[in-house]
Amino acid sequence: MIPLRRPDQAQTPTAIALGSFDGLHEGHRRVIAAAVDGxxxxxxxxxxxxxxxxxxxxxxxxxxxxxxxxxxxxxxEPLGIRQLVLVPFTPALAAxxxxxxxxxxxxxxxxxxxxxxxxxxxxxxxxxxxTEALERIGARHGMAVRVLPMFSDSRERLxxxxxxxxxxxxxxxxxxxxxxxxxxxxxRVVRGRGLGRELGWPTANLQxxxxxxxxxxxxxxxxxxxxxERLEGVMNLGPQPTVDPTAPSAVEVHLLxxxxxxxxxxxTVEPVALLRHQQRFDSLDALVAQIAAxxxxxxxxxxxxxxxxxxxxxxxxxxxxxxxxxx
Length: 327
Description:
The protein has 10 helices and 12 strands. By secondary structure, the protein is an alpha/beta fold.
């Protein structure tokens, strides 16, 4: 796996793809490919991003990620990148002028000889620096800059926000098409209250990193990856309006046709299709009957999906970023 590094730990000199790259969609991959293509030895092809998100630091806005750092490492490796550098975003960094940012970070710490960005890239205090400023400042330091146009499909510009909208609507197929891969998230199985088992439908309760963007609350047909094996499952994402309306949202997975001891295990979940939105039932019997119907429908959907193509196992099961120490 490629390393995750702070700027002062980076292997230099570098050819850099600079940006957030959340979701690593086709537009992002084109920027990264340009940096890799331009990384003639001894340049190290590198992705540079900020952590945490600037808006979290400047405005206190929580910004959930499509890809957490540990997940991104596995996604970047097959693209030819040799290191991911996360620049700690602080108020002091935000106060740097465009010139100071290039001089101190890109040139001073990373010894960048090539920087590739998208045409909407902004940097420096108050986002006052644009791509023209980056090209102008870079030229003074012998740093080449390449600017790539935004990537669009037949509908609109491809963006991380568009992927989030699809996930927020429970449109998993659309999100997968925009991502260029299935949407997945990981977590560790923790002990629950055992209510599912009492109802005859035992579930694995997942502890998911709170920084991960999750899809719309509801009940999903889902693949569940455990120790390299793909299992059929039904996932409930959200609260439990019938059993305990006051309980917080949770991620619960029931394996179809399998009973495994999973407490403490790392699972990767790939929601495939939204079966229904959450609802309150008049009785536990009605809830159990609906769960049985959900399971039957999920199994049919997953059997159908399995015949569409060959499933590729996740590179990192439970890839929620919790085990990765951030810079």
